[in-house]
Amino acid sequence: MALIKANNNTLSAVTELPTGISGQNYPAFYRVKTSSASITNETYTRVSFDTERFDTDNTMTTTTFTVPSGKAGKYFFHSACIVDANAVTQLGFINSKYYKNGSQANNILFDFRNNYVQQFNCQNTIILDLVAGDYIELYIRGFETSGNPSVNGSSGEDITYFMGYRLGA
């Protein structure tokens, strides 16, 4: 398959990729959570994804992605976690954080304290420069007005998931 590129308003075929781009986005993984789990209110909790949809290089456990030898580069990660308040309370805020080698790499905050919610799809995306042995984990923190929130899973739909892949070569 040839790629098409625009060149001064004309199209021409490109038969090979530019230097440094492999066209292969791997290692790559996609894991989902199939059952719900309560998390301690206002405490960062590492999220566990119990079902593997695919993992090209065996890089992802239930909680941790590790860069394999010879696969350094830029990596794209995306997660979605359905966070739910229990039946009688409301969510005030939710944090989602990626950790790189045990240290915070980013922090996404969704604050609902002016308009509390029952459930929220907390999404987080990041691109990181990684080397062999680096590892990535996802943590969630929720504040509920009374009790403990939960991270929902489903055996029928991929509502809570974590995925990632290397960008090019």
Structure description:
By secondary structure, this protein is mainly beta. It has a single domain, classed as Jelly Rolls. It is built from no helices and 15 strands. The protein has strands spanning 3-7, 10-14, 28-32, 37-38, 45-46, 51-55, 65-66, 73-84, 91-100, 103-104, 108-111, 119-130, 135-144, 150-152, 161-166. The strands form 3 sheets. Strands 3, 4, 6, 8, 12, 14 and 15 form a 7-stranded antiparallel sheet that branches. Strands 5, 7, 9, 10, 11 and 13 form a 6-stranded antiparallel sheet that branches. Strands 1-2 form a two-stranded antiparallel sheet. Strand 1 and strand 2 (10-14) form a beta hairpin. The mean pLDDT is 88.
The SSE order reads EEEEEEEEEEEEEEE
* Principal-axes shape call: elongated
Q: For this structure, what is the CATH class?
A: Mainly Beta
Main sheet overview: 7 strands, antiparallel
Instruction: Estimate the strand proportion.
Output: over 45%
Overall helicity: under 10%
SS class: mainly beta
Q: What value does the Rg take, in angstroms?
A: 19 Å
User: What would you call the quaternary organization?
Assistant: single chain
What is the CATH architecture annotation? Answer: Sandwich
Briefly note the CATH topology name: Jelly Rolls
Question: How many β strands by DSSP?
Answer: 15
How many helices in DSSP terms? 0
Please tell me the total number of domains. 1
Instruction: Outline the low-pLDDT stretches.
Output: none
